[in-house]
């Protein structure tokens, strides 16, 4: 039997409900700041999550689950580790288990969404489609409960009758879940329809696991004290809020709500600090502005394309700059720490070294890439090929250069693609013991710009051998110029 020590308990709690686009890390942290006990992430679909890689983001101090297209699907941090519930959309027990196992060490519990009535969810048999397939519900929940150590929960909508709803939750309870969240609306009902507190009450009376009442934002919960009123009206153990929290997350604050403008400011701070997806940030801010979304401020927000522009709208440019500078400093410090040695090491089939391209260390218009290109030509090798990737969490670049069928790469990530390529070229040149064009480097005999110009003017550089001169005649003037322009 699984130990309950340190496990998230769902009795007598207030929770931030799962909300697509809204329930990302900034909103979850904000809800925790204001007093929420539990925070659910937005629903994440199992098919997408199962392809993700877990990446520790040292700059942001987060754990990221990154899709093959480099999108961060789920970002979390230590602060919420014991309180965050990972909600997934699934219709497949094995895939659900694979996802749960991927994230379970970074979250407090796993939830399955059985309430989403949207077609994109139901057509795949997920969300509210599960409500008419209790065998599937049972299979998914049983597989999860058996397969992971963290508590498993689910979130349902009520069925057309109280009796059917109660029967379903009894079956769900038998799977061993830690709690069930009940949104007191039927799948055909819209958010404006009244919530069926009596259905939730009947469920709460019947089962012994904690029932989390949901659906009260419109009619019941406007202030903190209303949360308890809604809990009593439903007889539930806990309450989960979606829209009320989205409109003003300080609804969780026992001392009373703060102004929306204050909440917006705190939200933006987290959004910048944790590099929240800009579309999600904008969506969330539009929801908070509510009627003001058509105001000049709302229109400016609509037009904003970057986090910096969002900050401008809300007069937070200074905060933006300070945070970026702090993150940049952290990134540099981490890189310096990683830069223990410039000895080449083998990572798989790639020769790596922790080096950076420092522009000031090279004469104007001279770059390691140029040196590598010229050296390759002299050695009658194919032209170096650069392959560059960009990572999602900080949009930094890393290049691999292929020379004579060997791969070279810097272990350090660079801010631009050009610099990443230069760093890769340095690794290659240093590994091969070939000069790289640095200021003060002993003259290599590889061509530099001055000499090329001399050559074009009919002079012969004094360091050049006859072979080199001949080689230059053949190749350099025709092709290096282009390369140089590219650099
Ligand atoms: C913007 C938004 C996104 C939502 N996304 C999800 C979701 O990802 N998963 C889910 O189970 N419910 C989702 N819901 C439904 C809410 O969790 C909740 O069940 C519903 O809004 C009723 O609660 P309320 O009256 O407190 O708003 C979403 C609701 C909103 C408003």
Automatic annotation (TrEMBL):
Q: Where is this region: Disordered?
A: 439-487
Asked if the Swiss-Prot or TrEMBL record annotates the protein with the keyword Ubl conjugation, the reply is no
What's an example GO cellular component term for this entry? cytoplasm
InterPro entries linked? Aldolase_TIM, dsRBD_dom, DUS-like_FMN-bd, DUS2_DSRM, tRNA-DUS-like, tRNA_hU_synthase_CS
User: Which keywords does this chain's UniProt record carry?
Assistant: Flavoprotein, FMN, Oxidoreductase, RNA-binding, tRNA processing
Q: Which Gene3D superfamilies match?
A: 3.30.160.20, Aldolase class I
One Pfam match, given by its short name, reads dsrm
Taxonomically, which superkingdom? Eukaryota
Q: Which residues form the DRBM domain?
A: 367-434
Q: Does the keyword Aminoacyl-tRNA synthetase apply?
A: no
Necessary cofactors: FMN
An example of a GO molecular function for this protein is: tRNA dihydrouridine synthase activity
Among PANTHER family, the record links this protein to: TRNA-DIHYDROURIDINE(20) SYNTHASE [NAD(P)+]-LIKE
Record-given protein name: tRNA-dihydrouridine(20) synthase [NAD(P)+]-like
The protein's organism comes out as: Chanos chanos (Milkfish)
Q: Identify the gene encoding this protein.
A: dus2
